[in-house]
């Protein structure tokens, strides 16, 4: 009974965290579109950019003013359906909420340009866009569209795939260049590149870190590590060359977002432990990752 209450409390806490992240990310992304993106006539990547591209094309060539919310929600219907099937229901549900919130906020928030300098717009707009996506991903949500592709590939390949999605976005931006001029398209590519690098740098869920742990309390540590992280641990016996003491080397790979907690746990169990942290460029084989559900 107590366990069930604790579990419900944790689930509720996760839900509140996700909703707060979705709300904050939607607000940042919407303000960014109305302050930086519109000021520089940029076309950001993904379905956000595609929505703006279609909205602008309809106005320029047909004289029809289409609401951003209608286009963005319609375009994201198919990716959202695929997300439910391929990624997870909770992740996709939070993403759908963000898509809807962002769509209507863009229509409601007035245009408020901060600067018209195209380079400043590209760089700072890209930073804000990247921050918004990182916050959404922390809350186990996304801005939809190509973000679904990036998350799916990252889960499948066990490594970040945002630069691959950046390549897809460049194709969209080149199409925009053909319609509205390549100068705006090139600034849009800078915007998207900056945004992608922010995500790669700060979204750590898809990054892997190798830990080499030298300890004299191997049996205690290995059990606690496997229980806490759900990752496997390899134990190698050895001897310290300085004091000639028997030691064990524990080798394990964890997510970059888990490193701080794991190091804290290990040091609490063995105050004399030695830990070497190495970034893993890629891994092959089974690797546990907390599901997005």
TrEMBL record:
<dbReference type="InterPro" id="IPR051461">
    <property type="entry name" value="UPF0750_membrane"/>
</dbReference>
<dbReference type="InterPro" id="IPR015867">
    <property type="entry name" value="N-reg_PII/ATP_PRibTrfase_C"/>
</dbReference>
<feature type="transmembrane region" description="Helical">
    <location>
        <begin position="160"/>
        <end position="182"/>
    </location>
</feature>
<keyword id="KW-0472">Membrane</keyword>
<dbReference type="InterPro" id="IPR003740">
    <property type="entry name" value="YitT"/>
</dbReference>
<dbReference type="GO" id="GO:0005886">
    <property type="term" value="C:plasma membrane"/>
</dbReference>
<feature type="transmembrane region" description="Helical">
    <location>
        <begin position="91"/>
        <end position="113"/>
    </location>
</feature>
<feature type="domain" description="DUF2179">
    <location>
        <begin position="231"/>
        <end position="284"/>
    </location>
</feature>
<dbReference type="InterPro" id="IPR019264">
    <property type="entry name" value="DUF2179"/>
</dbReference>
<dbReference type="Pfam" id="PF02588">
    <property type="entry name" value="YitT_membrane"/>
</dbReference>
<keyword id="KW-1133">Transmembrane helix</keyword>
<keyword id="KW-0812">Transmembrane</keyword>
<feature type="transmembrane region" description="Helical">
    <location>
        <begin position="119"/>
        <end position="139"/>
    </location>
</feature>
<feature type="transmembrane region" description="Helical">
    <location>
        <begin position="63"/>
        <end position="84"/>
    </location>
</feature>
<dbReference type="Pfam" id="PF10035">
    <property type="entry name" value="DUF2179"/>
</dbReference>
<keyword id="KW-1003">Cell membrane</keyword>
<protein>
    <recommendedName>
        <fullName>DUF2179 domain-containing protein</fullName>
    </recommendedName>
</protein>
């Amino acid at each position: 009974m107590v366990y069930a209450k604790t579990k419900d409390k944790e689930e509720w806490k996760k839900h509140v965290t996700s909703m707060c992240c979705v709300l904050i990310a939607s607000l940042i992304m919407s303000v960014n579109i109305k302050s930086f993106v519109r000021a520089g006539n940029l076309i950001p990547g993904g379905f956000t950019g595609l929505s703006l591209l279609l909205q602008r094309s309809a106005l320029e060539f047909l004289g029809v003013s289409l609401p951003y919310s209608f286009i963005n929600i319609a375009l994201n219907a198919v990716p959202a359906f695929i997300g439910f099937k391929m990624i997870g229901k909770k992740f996709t549900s939070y993403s759908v909420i963000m898509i809807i919130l962002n769509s209507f906020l863009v229509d409601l928030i007035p245009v408020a340009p901060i600067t018209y300098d195209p380079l400043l717009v590209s760089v700072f707009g890209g930073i804000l866009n990247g921050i918004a996506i990182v916050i959404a991903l922390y809350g186990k949500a996304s801005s939809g569209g190509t973000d679904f592709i990036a998350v799916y590939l990252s889960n499948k390949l066990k490594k970040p795939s945002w630069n691959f999605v950046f390549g897809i976005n460049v194709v969209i931006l080149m199409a925009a260049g053909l319609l509205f001029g390549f100068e705006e398209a090139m600034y849009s590519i800078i915007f998207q590149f900056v945004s992608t690098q922010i995500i790669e740098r700060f979204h750590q869920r898809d990054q892997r870190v190798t830990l080499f742990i030298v300890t004299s309390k191997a049996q205690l540590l290995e059990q606690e590590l496997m229980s806490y992280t759900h990752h496997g641990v390899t134990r190698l016996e050895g001897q310290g060359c300085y004091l000639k003491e028997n030691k064990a080397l524990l080798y394990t790979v964890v997510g970059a977002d888990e490193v701080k907690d794991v190091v804290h746990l290990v040091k609490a169990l063995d105050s004399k432990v030695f830990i070497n942290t190495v970034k893993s460029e890629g891994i092959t084989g089974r690797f546990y990752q907390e599901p997005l559900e």
